[in-house]
Design goal:
By secondary structure, this protein is an alpha/beta fold. The protein has a single domain, classed as 3-Layer(aba) Sandwich (Rossmann fold). It is about 45% helix and about 15% strand. It has helices at about 5-10, 20-30, 45-55, 70-85, 105-130, 155-175, 195-200, 200-210, 220-230, 255-260, 260-265, and strands at about 10-15, 35-40, 60-65, 90, 135-140, 180-185, 240-245. The chain has a 7-stranded parallel beta sheet with strand order 3-2-1-4-5-6-7, sandwiched between helices. Strand 2 (about 35-40), helix 3 (about 45-55) and strand 3 (about 60-65) form a beta-alpha-beta unit. It starts with a helix and ends with a helix. Bound molecules: NADP nicotinamide-adenine-dinucleotide phosphate. The site of NADP nicotinamide-adenine-dinucleotide phosphate has 28 residues, from helix 2 and helix 5. NADP nicotinamide-adenine-dinucleotide phosphate binds near residues 93 and 141. Keywords: Cell wall, Oxidoreductase, Secreted. GO terms for molecular function: 3-oxoacyl-[acyl-carrier-protein] reductase (NADPH) activity. It comes from Mycolicibacterium celeriflavum. It catalyses: a (3R)-hydroxyacyl-[ACP] + NADP(+) = a 3-oxoacyl-[ACP] + NADPH + H(+).
Length: about 270
């Protein structure tokens, strides 16, 4: 088989925020499934670590760019087209945490959250969708905070809720062309984004005590779901938001410990 024929066969996934946490996990998982990966982030050292983790230089390219820059979508998509001539999957994952409640959110912070987690995925999806062929898919990483309001969610909840609606629009608009779009909504997942919060034992405890499957999320929980949604087995799943949180969002669960705590007993 010629190199050209091989490059026509390989599926290509763009993963944003691939320099860390969930995005890094998705990129390596999809590479293990045989895909070529275009991983993006701002930190060049961490992008080099991704290239090393994937290990096969024929199947990985990285783009160090601030996703909110005007030229970012074009640069990212062109990288995939120049290397492999196609894009099969877009994983809109990059995000930022530590929001404040509505009344404490200034305009700069509002624009920042909406810019990274709503405007940038919108612009990247717009850039990529015209190159996608039937069988392609876009997956947006949202959050349990796009399903429930989320205490202190503020601009983060607003951005993620918008991303959920964008998911449904893309699913409706491009489904007839064989292009699916779904969202994956993680619960609290152990990554650098929440590392500081997880140092607080009360934060850890309250999240596990209210989760009927009582643990925190792991990167692989999310990466596996993303990989499934990219697979043939998910070819009739379109316009959904899959919540991966052990039941935190859909139940009002309290563990025995919580049920027996003073404030419930009194
Ligand atoms: P993380 O480890 O902090 O990674 C965030 C990624 O986003 C990094 O790769 C970062 O790249 C990239 N990024 C942030 N701002 C960027 C910008 N302006 N331009 C380019 N890249 C940018 O976070 P994570 O926990 O894996 O989060 C991944 C996604 O999951 C986010 O959308 C987050 O909202 C969502 N999520 C996470 C949790 C959780 O508990 N961890 C829960 C619900 C939803 P650089 O640092 O290289 O710039």
């Amino acid at each position: 088989m010629t190199a050209d024929a091989r490059s026509e066969m390989v599926q290509v996934a763009i993963v944003t925020g691939a320099s860390s946490g969930i995005g890094f996990g998705c990129a390596t998982k999809l590479a293990e499934a045989g895909m070529a990966i275009v991983g993006t982030g701002r930190d060049e050292d961490r992008l080099s670590a991704l290239e090393k983790a994937i290990g096969d230089h024929d199947r990985v390219a990285t783009v160090a760019v601030d996703l909110t820059a005007d030229e970012a979508p074009q640069r990212i998509v062109q990288t995939a087209l120049d290397r492999w001539g196609r894009v099969d999957f877009l994983i809109n994952n990059a995000g930022v945490g530590s929001p404040k409640p509505l009344h404490e959110t200034d305009d700069e912070s509002l624009d920042y959250f909406l810019g990274v987690m709503l405007r940038a995925p919108f612009r990247l999806a717009r850039e990529v969708v015209v190159h996608m062929k039937p069988g392609s898919a876009i997956i947006n990483i949202t959050s349990t905070f796009s399903v429930v309001g989320g205490l202190r969610g503020g601009a983060y909840s607003a951005a993620k809720g918008g991303l959920t609606s964008l998911t449904r629009h893309i699913a409706c608009q491009y489904g007839p062309q064989g292009i699916r779009c779904n969202a994956v909504a993680p619960g609290v997942t152990v990554t650098p984004m929440v590392a500081t919060r997880l140092e607080d034992s009360r934060f850890r405890k309250i999240n596990t005590e209210m989760t009927p499957y009582p643990r925190l999320g792991e990167v692989n929980d999310i990466a596996s779901t993303v990989a499934f949604l990219c697979s043939e087995g998910a070819s009739f799943i379109n316009g959904q938001e899959i919540v991966v949180d052990g039941g935190w969002t859909s139940t009002k669960y309290l563990s025995d410990f919580a049920l027996n705590s003073d404030w419930v007993q009194s």
